[in-house]
Write a structure and sequence with these properties.
homodimer; 533 residues; alpha+beta; 5-stranded antiparallel beta sheet; 20% strand; globular
């Protein structure tokens, strides 16, 4: 049997942690926090008791529909902490009744027709990397079919002249890049979920990618989309730009599966970069570093990377002293030296109080060698790339991230308010054993996209409730202080209470409802995401 | 009395052409084309016979509503050639019954309430620069009220830290820049209509601006919008970026007044540029020049200006030999020298076969002196800036432009097909006396936005019918060949037949209808624009 995705951990089955790994971590946590932490054994699917499927699969779709326990457990959840805990605990109150793996547009359409005719809850499913409860609903809303796009994984056409490609929506990040690489191309969209997320998921959720400035979201790389809805196909025209009415693509981008299922898209691609330049600049304080980032982005040099780690993150990830902030600025190009850009960026950073040795400004003029893998920048990069394989699940540790965006004029007060309110919630929930830190993942001329990471040592068995207490306050605080409840993680079901439902214009919600009613009159698609009907 | 806009010509009343100007031009045309051209005298508003207003203005809105002949004639049309001819001929079959000039949001809302309660056709009106029949309908659809935003003309707040400003929608281009200039800011949005168009109009129509690459449309500069609809206020949150559902702003941008009336917006502004660099590069052929533009834009240097004139335009506007194409590339910045960028751009242009003397590469490192006002570039600039004041109206000359966007892979065939089909329509309509030429106004990594200009010497009195014959074929040809029916002139009523109605996904039209039904249940706003109800 091929190496499958773990049904509970964010990895392949072959990469799951062992009971020994977990026992060792439990012992370490027990010692560090003075509490008794017990490592339950890693779960076995054979022990899972799933409700029997409540629907029969007719011959018309049987060729690509599955009702195996593996599929029903595997597709019961997305990737969020709370969902990983539930899967670990074999807690599957609402598994899908069937999982479809259609192999082409015709099979997607047939599956959707079957679901619509019967009023089944229908969930488009890409890589399952949602961290916002954006896929299978946890509550029972009736018979449920997951439509996985995993077999729609091909790059269908590459247009080297226009630098664009027609790509099926179900392709995972690495497989997509493998297909673009032989002709020298790349999409260069690398969300943290890259390994286990898909093009269609990126488009449906307005994924944030590799570029920290200018074209940050997948939105800007979409040339046209193809989507099947219960009302029929929605296919936009390939256009480099247009002013003909509101953009049809922008209606689909961010629709999170409530209007239809994206099956393919024409995407703007590019030549693989070979010219690079990078510098890591230290600042005496978080505030000073943030001001430097503002000056850098407002100079419109459009660096590929422009990030800042607060002193806590800079210490943890890059070994700095806990007072200093670290700014990373990088440029890349397939065709042109980036030495002038990095020189101008460094000048701005130094004028803003930053420190960087000339030796730490790395320029590569076409060898293609990485420039960002040494020193503080490299240390940070390695810390970022690593994503846990579930070893800590259900050991009482609670952690999460939340991200937002805010205009510069409000930034320092916003940051203070978030740290104060979420810090208080962490205090209340975890006592002394918690952390809260921040970096910018993306930056705009009019404001940053701050990304907060928090963790706390909680009580085994209470992780989900403890997480919820902190999350509620984070949603409230972000929206109260003027930010967006999500910059690139999407809304799903998680970000609605205290958050999205207060943030978006009420008449926009009405408009989304009106569109959904027209495209999905029976309301089968991803109910509860973004809106109530 | 203050100098008012001409009710028929694209200028102020004081700038209208005289009968002598027109007689001289008529004589010139008679001689050139061997036909008798007679210059009718410039029209006088006193000779206009307008249908009496069919509605009374109640006290609740009387303070800002007008029923004068001047207002009703002035707001009866937009700026299109066909509308200027009609106004010149005092042909006003469907003047608005009243014109409102509300002074604040409350008065806008009261006016809209009045219209909605009575089912009056309601037209939001900015500068009236629409060239797509996007404002007052020509056909009688019932009592009609124009809501002019001309008194909402203030910059309300400037946020220098975030580089953003809160601006009322009715401000005209020059007045907007006048209010931003004292603090060193600019919006730098300079459509050809700049003098007589407004911020709200730019947003409602997805106006194309100063920047030829990267952020070409007004869309990218909108931070948030405020719009009154019959269903209430639609106010989005100020955010530098977001991934929370489909963008509310992108639903409003391009909605062409069918959902509501934009009253203000937070816009991304910038420091005024003082560093500049420009080069004009000649190419032996149109095709060679277009390939160079493709290489230039795909290098992602993001020049502020990157345009190409075909040999006909390069001869007419810049004095070249009729074989050569002219590429203009310019960079600008408020903070950084642009000498490296222009050097890299020139290298690409030369590698692509272009010719430019080193002396013709102009760099200004901070004096703020213009760099693009000498030589071929300057000649072209002066030709572009001049817009006719109506001297040629109703003398038999017919002229217009149309603009589109198309991916690079289709470009040469697209251009050939457009020239062939529109050329044939010009032949059929005008015989030998016509011209057709092209430039790029905006350029994307995946394709250009070509802008075609045509003219023909037609028959006095038949100008509108002759124009229509060519326009129908242009709409058809552009959409048949894969382009968009408009890149930045908007859809209005003109671009629907043969064009927009075939181009947009049918389910998108259904979605727009559904949203309109929710926001404007009585269908009073700008009926016939974008969709039929």
């Amino acid at each position: 049997m091929a190496d499958r995705r773990s049904f509970w951990a964010w990895c392949l089955e072959s990469e799951e942690p062992t009971d020994e790994d977990r026992a060792a971590l439990a012992a370490k946590l027990s010692k560090r926090y003075g509490v008794e932490v017990t490592a339950e054994p890693v779960p076995s699917l054979g022990d899972a008791e799933l409700r029997a499927p409540r629907i029969g699969v007719p011959d018309s779709v049987a060729g690509w529909c599955s009702t195996t326990t593996y599929d029903r457990a595997r597709y019961a959840y997305g990737a969020h902490f709370t969902e990983r805990v539930r899967a670990f605990n074999l807690d599957f109150p609402n598994p899908p009744d069937a999982v479809a793996h259609p192999r082409d547009d015709t099979e997607v359409e047939a599956t959707l027709d079957w679901c619509d005719a019967n009023g089944y809850v229908t969930v488009p499913y890409g890589g399952g990397s949602s961290v916002v409860w954006g896929v299978t609903p946890h509550d029972d809303l009736g018979p449920t079919v997951v439509i996985s796009l995993d077999r729609l994984d091909r790059v269908l056409e590459i247009d080297d002249v226009s630098r664009a490609a027609r790509i099926q929506a179900g392709v995972f990040g690495p497989c997509l890049e493998d297909q673009l690489r032989p002709s020298g191309h790349t999409l260069r969209h690398f969300p943290q979920s890259f390994r286990f997320s898909t093009l269609g998921g990126w488009i449906a959720t307005r994924s944030g990618g590799h570029y920290a400035t200018n074209h940050t979201h997948i939105d800007d790389f979409v040339e046209s989309v193809r989507m099947i809805t219960p009302a029929g196909w929605f296919q936009s025209r390939r256009l480099p730009g247009s002013g003909a009415g509101p953009s049809p693509d922008r209606m689909v981008v961010g629709s999170e599966g409530i209007y239809g299922i994206i099956t393919e898209a024409w995407m703007r691609i590019q030549r693989r970069p070979v010219f690079r330049a990078t510098a890591g600049v230290t600042f005496g304080s978080w505030q000073e570093g943030c001001e430097a980032v503002r000056h850098l982005v407002q100079a419109k040099l459009w660096p590929a990377n422009l990030r800042i780690l607060d002193p806590a993150e800079a210490r943890r990830a890059a070994g700095l002293d806990g007072e200093q902030a670290l700014v990373i600025v990088s440029f890349e190009s397939a065709e042109l030296t980036q030495r002038h850009n990095i020189a101008q960026a460094v000048e701005i950073a130094r004028d803003s109080g930053g420190t960087v040795d000339d030796d730490d400004i790395r320029v590569d003029d076409g060898t293609g060698a990485p420039t960002g893998r040494g020193g503080a920048v490299g240390a940070w990069r390695n810390a970022f790339i690593g994503v846990g394989n579930g070893v800590e699940t259900s050991l009482g540790l609670v952690d999460d991230t939340f991200e937002t965006a805010i205009t510069w004029d409000r930034w320092p007060e916003f940051d203070a308010e978030i740290r104060s309110r979420v810090g208080a919630a962490l205090d209340d929930t975890f006592g002394p054993h918690h952390s809260l830190s921040c970096r910018f993942t993306h930056v705009y001329t009019d404001g940053p996209a701050p990304y907060y990471t928090w963790s706390g040592m909680g009580a085994q068995g209470s992780e989900i409730a403890q997480w919820q207490a902190v999350k509620d306050e984070a949603n409230r605080a972000v929206v109260d202080a003027g930010g967006t409840v999500t910059h690139h993680h999407a809304v799903g079901r998680m970000h609605r209470p205290h958050g999205y439902d207060r943030q978006r214009p009420e008449l926009f919600a009405e408009s989304v409802r009106a569109v959904k009613k027209r495209l999905d009159p029976n309301g089968i698609l991803n109910p509860g995401v973004l809106i109530d009907p």
